[in-house]
Design a protein that fits this description.
The chain contains six helices and eleven strands. The strands form two sheets. Strands 1, 2, 3, 4, 5, 6, 7, 10 and 11 form a nine-stranded mixed β-sheet that branches. It is of the alpha/beta class. The longest helix is centred in the last third of the chain and has 23 residues. The structure holds oxaloacetate ion and nickel (II) ion. The site of nickel (II) ion has 4 residues, from α3. GO terms for molecular function: 4-hydroxy-4-methyl-2-oxoglutarate aldolase activity; metal ion binding; oxaloacetate decarboxylase activity.
Length: 242
């Protein structure tokens, strides 16, 4: 399989695979988390058998009292095609246990999805609550978030940054708090299993190259298992050939 190089080709390529396939490759490349961003729920699904893929277009909300000025232009009117809209909060408004956010207002709603879809974005990931569940689903526009709500963001929050790194607080294995950074331009891959971020770095060509090989090997393992072979033996055999 030809390994893509332009971001357009990479997005088309990644749409053939699941976030699990991407995580397998990142694991193989030394990323223990596999790029998984935990605790997000897929409140509006992708089409069956499809992943939502795009480059992160990031938006940072903060309380209205934050000293930073509000961004003048509405973030939603500058969403680039083939992006995934990723909306976050400062670390001090995040929690490592449910509901993962201290903000009870929704940070995103159906009109935002309508505009994002019109601008040819491929999905939205909200590190907070969303509202208007039926509207995202009726649009068939994929959305992930930590939870749901009923109030709009404007009474509590303002946008203070667009296309800046977003920090996401999560619970770790050895530490109570770990921080994942989603950088603008990272590839975001999501489906019903969850959301993975894949950095656009020097390791990317190798990560992409491994994905179809590993999927092919696991297809062979599946056939073996159906024919009665022990799983561990078959996994070792086919994965060693990659
Ligand atoms: O109005 C808002 O600020 C959020 C919302 O409900 C929408 O995007 O539909
Ligand atoms: Ni709304």
């Amino acid at each position: 399989m030809k390994i893509p190089t332009s971001s357009k080709e990479i997005i088309i390529f990644l749409k053939q695979f699941t976030p699990c396939d991407v995580s397998d490759s990142l694991n193989k490349h030394g990323v223990a988390s596999g790029g998984f961003i935990p605790n997000l729920i897929n409140f509006s699904p992708t089409a069956p058998g499809e992943s939502a893929v795009g480059k992160a277009y990031t938006v940072l909300y903060a309380p209205k009292s934050d000293p930073r000025p509000a961004v003048k232009n509405a973030y939603i009117d500058s969403v680039p095609p083939d992006s995934i809209v990723v909306i976050g909060l400062p670390l001090d408004l995040q929690t490592t246990t449910a509901p993962y956010t201290k903000v009870n207002n929704a940070m995103y709603g159906g009109l935002m999805s309508t505009r994002a879809q019109y601008s040819k974005a491929n999905g939205s990931v909200i590190f907070g609550r969303i509202r208007d569940l039926d509207e995202h689903n009726d649009l068939k526009y994929p959305v992930w978030s930590y939870g749901v709500g009923t109030s709009a963001p404007g009474s509590l929050l303002k946008v203070v940054g667009i296309n800046i790194p977003l920090q996401v607080k999560v619970h770790g294995l050895s530490q109570d708090e770990e921080v994942i950074t989603v950088n603008p331009g990272d590839y975001i891959i999501g489906d019903k299993n969850g959301v993975v971020s894949l950095p656009d770095d020097e390791q990317l060509p190798s990560v992409l190259e491994y994905i179809p090989k590993r999927v092919e090997a696991d297809t062979k393992v599946s056939q073996d298992i159906k024919n009665g072979k022990p799983a561990a033996e078959s996994q070792k055999f086919w994965r060693s050939k990659i």
